[in-house]
Every structure is written in C-alpha cells, then in structure tokens.
Design a protein that fits this description.
Number of helices: 3
Order of helices and strands: HEEEEEHEHEEEEEEEEEEEEEEEEEEE
Mean pLDDT: 78
Oligomer: single chain
Helix content: under 10%
CATH architecture of the largest domain: Sandwich
CATH class of the largest domain: Mainly Beta
CATH superfamily of the largest domain: Immunoglobulins
Shape: flat
CATH topology of the largest domain: Immunoglobulin-like
Distance between the termini: 129 Å
Low-confidence stretches: 101-195
Largest sheet: 9 strands, mixed
Structural class: mainly beta
Strand content: 25-35%
Length: 481
C-alpha cells in the first residue's frame, strides 16, 4: 500500500475537528450563560382580617413564611398597609308620583344633604382633608374624613394601655387616606348620569337594609388604594404576636351612628422579602366603621379553684361582650378568649393555669361580622396562685384480715393531683399518725403493721403537686382478728 500524504493530512484534520466538537459540547454542559438568582418574593397574604375596636381598626394576618412557589422565605423587611375608602351607596329613588324628599326627585338627582344645590366635587377622603362634594348652591355634601394622619406625619400603630390592642408603629405616606369617588355630582358619586363609586354597594330599595360591600377588582384596588402605614424591620418585632402580624390605624371622627351611614374601608397589605422583592396585594378586608358602644364598667377578676372569674357591669343595648386574656409578658391580645351573650356579665376562664400571670379586659360588642366593639377602658392583672386543695377522697372502706388491713377509696378528681396520704389511729396512741411517707398514686393501701386483737381507725386525704392537702374523708373503724 502506497503512502498518500494528502489523505493522511485529511484524516488528521477530521480527528482534530471531532475532538474540538466533543470538547465544545462538554464545555456547554458546564458553563453557558449565567442564570439569574432566584427572587425571594413573599407569597401574597390570604388571611388579612380587620375589625373595629373603639375608634381604631385592628388588622391581623399570618407572618409570611414562603414564596409563591412554596420555597422558604428568609424573613420580611417591610410591610405596607393600604386603604381604599368607598363612599356609601346613593339613596334610593322615589317611585313616580311620590313627593320629592330627601332621597331623590324624579330627575334622578339626590337631594342636597344640607339644602339645595348640585355639586361637582370628588369624594376624596385624604389625610386630614375634606371629603368633597360641596354643593355649588348650598352647604357641603360631606364632612371631613380624617382617614389618615397629616401629610408627612407618623401613624402610630402603638397599642395604648386603654386597649388599642396592637403595638405596631410605622410611617404614614403623605396625603394618605381614601379614594376619589366616580361621578360628577357629590360625594356619593351619584346624580345625573353618574355611576356609583367602584366597589360601593348598589342602592337599596326604600326601607331595605344596605347590601354588604364587595371587594374591589385588582385594577380598582391598584388605582384607589392609598398607602396608610409602613412597618419597617424595627417595627415588625413589636407587631408580631406568635405567627401573626398585628397593626392598628385610627379611624376618622366623628364616626357615623350606623354602619350604613358611612363609607366602607377596604384594606390590603403588601410585604417585602429580604432583598426588597414586593408581594402582590393580599386579600381585601372590608370594614364599615360606626360609633361603637361604651366599654363595660367595673371589670373585676377573682381566682377560684376551677379557674379565674371575670365579671363586669352590663352595658345597655350591648349585643354581647368580648373577654380578652393575654399573658403578662405579651403586649396585646389578637382574638377574644370568649364572646358572652347578654344578659350574662361574667365568664369563668377554666383554661387558666396556676403559677401564671394574666391580664384580662372586656369590651362591649355591637356587630360580629366583622367585629365592631368598644374600646378597652381598663385591664386587670392577676397572678394565679394555687391555694386550693384537691377534692376530699370519699367512700373509704376497710377490710381486716389476719395480720393486715386492706383500704380502698374513691379517686379524687384534680388535674394537679400528686397522690393520697393514709392516716391511722390506734388505741395506744390516741391520735392519727401518717402511715405513707410519700403520697401514693393508687386508691388502695394495705397496712401490714397491725397487731392481732387490736382495733384501728383510718382516714385518707388527697394532696396536689403544690402541697395543698384536702380535708380527710370519712373515718373507718376496724378490728384485726
């Protein structure tokens, strides 16, 4: 076979090209373009709840723990609380032939609340501002709506000792408050050719109760919601209670006499991850504030063997009472321990544990869904000390046998029972002597230290883990054969 240098060179080039292709393919599996780091976006909150306590609104939700994909979230750096103010529905139109009244004339224009004139104002409940809708031919159609603090001011989410219930301090955004109402004829957004504000309930028929407000759609929420409170890292610690974050905001005063008479306040929150990634809006928590009932007077607490008794003076026309309890080391309470229906004005807390310190308070409840209650006027602290012995052991029976006496009795029902102590009195001693050096856990005992021909008296007591000993049960007399 002859040597062909051209063919040999071509073969070497082919092998080199194949090796280069293989190396390139291998390198592509290891390097390639860099992938962006995973974003630590908090999953949107789904359990935001709101209720009114006094002249404040309390908001609570679970502390974010994961991303939308379920990955662990390494903390939260900031929480933003938003509020949209939705005006109440316009008054219903009167039927044809009816006399024009405060509701509406046949033209469809609502009557001026303060006498005459139609307006072109926008209902904007700002921070310390005025809800517009002032009529051009009469007085203002709406009063002030101080839904937030003054521009650039600070919204205190700190819970007062009087019972605001939350300890969350944050900075309010300038010009916070409500949202402009749609329409061109007054604060309610109603009038000739004007539609109701987004999210506002539809007008009710004359004499019918106002319908429940509805949540805004995402675009409306994005447009109308105003930032009311910002909790930074330094605020989140004081706002945390177990797995919950709790904050409170002031409500504008004066509050309407009824929930139907005022606007609906729609709340939502956004949270920020450890690298500043912001979550989507939470679920919406809607509240119709109203004038709350007065708080109960003369709240007292008293320890008992079976719990702590909380009592208070009745509040006229109260729909119920909410009893709160928190440990003395906790800053606030998030949920009632119990809700009591009138005319009852007491609650026995049987879940209290000895050697613990508790703080109790009571509010008067006006509405339950969502909760509207009075402010907390006073709190009562108590250290629950166990000074109560177990129940007396009953039905002691003695059976004498040769060289022994067998005793049996009924169990003493006590959660902190340590056991029983057996006493015996003989003719020689004339007084009862303790037979069991330590409490026994069973309800029987065999005395083998008796003498034949002698008579004895027995009795049994119960003792708890604190050392409180009950009175003795019935005594039994037995003669040993």
């Amino acid at each position: 076979m002859s040597y062909d240098p051209v063919r040999r060179t071509q073969a070497k080039l082919a092998v080199a090209a194949a090796l280069a292709a293989a190396l390139t393919a291998a390198a592509c599996g290891k390097e390639g373009p860099p992938t962006p780091p995973l974003r630590a976006v908090p999953a949107p909150t789904k359990d935001l709840a709101a209720h009114q306590r006094g002249n404040r609104v309390l908001l609570s939700f679970t502390y974010p723990q994961t991303t939308p994909g379920g990955s662990a979230l390494n903390g939260v750096t900031k929480v933003e609380i938003y509020e949209a103010v939705i005006p109440p529905p316009p008054p219903p139109k009167q039927a044809p032939g009816a006399k024009p009244g405060a509701a509406a004339a046949l033209t469809g224009k609502p009557a001026s609340p303060a006498g005459g004139g139609t307006g072109t104002g926008a209902a904007a409940a700002g921070a310390g501002g005025t809800a517009a809708g002032a009529s051009t031919g009469g007085s203002a159609a709406a009063g002030t709506a101080a839904a937030g603090t003054a521009a650039g001011g600070t919204a205190a989410g700190s819970a007062a000792a009087a019972g605001a219930g939350a300890a969350a301090t944050g900075t309010a955004a300038p010009g916070t408050g409500g949202a402009p109402a749609a329409g061109t004829s007054g604060a309610a957004g109603a009038g000739t050719g004007a539609a109701a504000a987004p999210g506002a309930p539809k007008p009710a028929a004359p004499g019918a109760a106002a319908p429940a407000p509805e949540a805004l759609d995402p675009k409306q929420l994005e447009s109308l919601a105003k930032l009311r409170l910002t909790l930074t890292s330094k605020d989140l610690g004081t706002a945390t209670l177990g797995k919950l974050l709790i904050a409170d905001l002031p409500l504008p005063e004066p509050l309407p006499a009824t929930a139907e008479g005022g606007p609906t306040r729609d709340y939502a929150v956004r949270t920020y991850g450890p690298k500043g990634d912001r979550s989507a809006f939470s679920n919406q928590a809607l509240l119709r504030p109203k004038t709350p009932p007065p708080p109960p007077e003369k709240v007292t607490v008293a320890p008992q063997a079976d719990g702590i008794l909380v009592e208070w003076k009745a509040v006229p026309d109260a729909g119920g009472y909410a009893v709160y309890r928190r440990a003395a080391t906790e800053r606030f309470s998030s949920k009632p321990l119990a809700v009591v229906r009138p005319p009852t004005t007491r609650h026995l807390d049987q879940t209290a544990r000895f050697a613990q310190s508790y703080i109790y308070s009571v509010t008067a409840v006006d509405a339950k869904q969502p909760l509207v209650e009075s402010a907390i006027k006073a709190e009562q602290e108590i250290h629950y000390v166990d000074r109560y012995p177990p129940p007396v052991p009953e039905e002691l029976v003695a059976v004498a046998e040769a060289g022994r006496v067998r005793l049996v009795w009924q169990q003493s029902e006590a959660p902190d029972l340590a056991g029983y102590i057996v006493y015996r009195k003989g003719a020689a001693t004339g007084e009862f002597v303790r037979l069991t050096a330590k409490p026994i856990a069973v309800t029987s005992y065999v005395d083998t230290t008796v003498a034949s021909g002698q008579a004895y008296d027995y009795r049994v007591t119960a003792i708890d883990q604190t050392g409180n000993e009950s009175a003795p049960g019935n005594e039994v007399h037995v003669a040993v054969p």
